[in-house]
Specification:
By secondary structure, the chain is an alpha/beta fold. Helix content is 36%, strand content 18%.
Length: 227
């Protein structure tokens, strides 16, 4: 399984000081930055676009940027995020008219493609796409808002996705997003996640480094318990 990554979601950051906030969580030990894009169409909220991603790169952010597109349609915005400096670009299969074409578009623009599954979305799409993608993102809340409560049935879906990835023989990252905090990150790791998105749990804490250390300790405890 790949090395575990912690991905703070800037949706919960202080946007008046976004560059400094991103610098702070990376200095505190984060591995990549999670970038939530909402369009007030596919989801009932409106957030940020490629210009903010580009601004972070101009600010000097070198870490991978993990762009989660909660938009419809998808293809129009992919080239803009690729040009802005995205590393991973993931999208919801329901939001694309042609999933295979969108995956290819992301790859053609030099980014790593991923598929995102809402809590009630079946994993069947992976039957025909797992060999084409680099990331599977399991939503443990319904997309659209920060600060929601973790949905426990997501753990079962994580385990199912991990089994599919293992059977494929490919190194595909398995990400979990929604309500992740110190108290439940170990359960997500045990279920098979290797990449953990946390927004308010990190940015809402008084000490980013301490929170990230506690999260890593829980992940490490999960690995030890599995042996």
């Amino acid at each position: 399984m790949p090395q575990s990554w912690i991905a703070p979601s800037i949706l919960s950051a202080d946007f008046a000081s976004l560059g400094a906030e991103v610098d702070a969580v990376l200095e505190a030990g984060a591995d990549l930055i999670h970038f939530d894009v909402m369009d007030n169409h596919y989801v009932p909220n409106l957030t940020i676009g490629p210009l903010v991603c580009e601004a972070l790169r101009r600010h000097g952010v070198k870490a991978p940027i993990d762009v989660h597109l909660m938009v419809r349609p998808v293809d129009r915005i992919v080239p803009d995020f690729a040009a802005a400096g995205a590393t991973y670009i993931s999208f919801h299969p329901e939001a694309s008219e042609h999933i295979d074409r969108t995956i290819s578009l992301i790859r053609e623009h030099g980014c790593c493609p991923g598929l995102v599954f809402n809590p009630a979305t079946p994993l069947d799409y992976l039957d025909y796409t797992l060999e084409l993608i680099d990331l599977v993102l399991i939503m443990s809340v319904n997309p659209g808002f920060a600060g929601q409560q973790f949905i426990p049935t997501s753990l079962r879906k994580l385990a199912d996705a991990r089994a599919r990835i293992a059977a494929s023989g490919r190194e595909v990252r398995l990400e979990i997003d929604g309500g992740i905090k110190v108290s439940n990150i170990r359960a997500a790791a045990r279920a098979g996640a290797d990449t953990f998105v946390a927004g308010s749990a990190i940015f809402g804490s008084p000490d980013y480094a301490q929170t990230i250390r506690e999260m890593r300790a829980q992940i490490d405890g999960s690995a030890q318990g599995a042996r």
